[in-house]
């Protein structure tokens, strides 16, 4: 089963870390990626820009309306994710615990089962969900 391992950032927590601790988190991602590639559980990963660089698009009266900033104001924001294939939910929890951010108080990894998946190569019919 596929799982999204969502990494949320709290800038106050991040800025409170020493430069060495931040560097350990960042370099730890390389080791984590190596490990889950070797185990065959890695599908993909993406890091996202800060919310200040985002925009929200909503259609009003048939026309797109674009506003600057995140959809919801919050201290925490989605900073990136790993998409993994794990044999069980318990294994997904184990994999999430290997992500360096999980060891930082005030940060955490949300583990969410994927109920629909499509990519550029896979022929898929969406039936709702």
Which labels suit this protein?
alpha+beta, 32% strand, single chain, two-stranded antiparallel ribbon, flat, 4-stranded antiparallel β-sheet, 129 residues, 3 helices
Commentary on this structure:
It is a single chain. The protein has 3 helices and 6 strands; from the N terminus they run E-H-H-E-E-E-E-H-E. With 129 residues, it is of the alpha+beta class. A 4-stranded antiparallel sheet has the order 2-5-1-6. 28% of the residues lie in helices and 32% in strands.
Secondary structure elements and pairings:
Blueprint (H helix, E strand, L loop, with lengths): L1 E8 L1 H5 L3 H21 L2 E6 L7 E6 L2 E6 L8 E9 L3 H10 L9 E6 L16
Antiparallel strand pairs: 1-5, 1-6, 2-5, 3-4
Give me a quick take on this structure:
By secondary structure, the protein is α+β, with helices and mostly antiparallel strands. It is built from 3 helices and 6 strands.
How far apart, in Å, are the first and last alpha carbons?
16 Å
| Uncertain segments | none
Protein structure class:
alpha+beta
Number of E-state strands: 6
* CA-atom Rg in angstroms: 17 Å
Strand count, sense and barrel status of the largest sheet are: 4 strands, antiparallel
Helix count from the secondary structure assignment: 3
Helix residue percentage: 25-40%
Outline: flat
Would you list the SSEs in sequence order as H and E? Answer: EHHEEEEHE
What portion of residues belong to β-strands?
Answer: 25-35%
Strand order of the largest sheet: 2-5-1-6
Chain-averaged pLDDT: 91
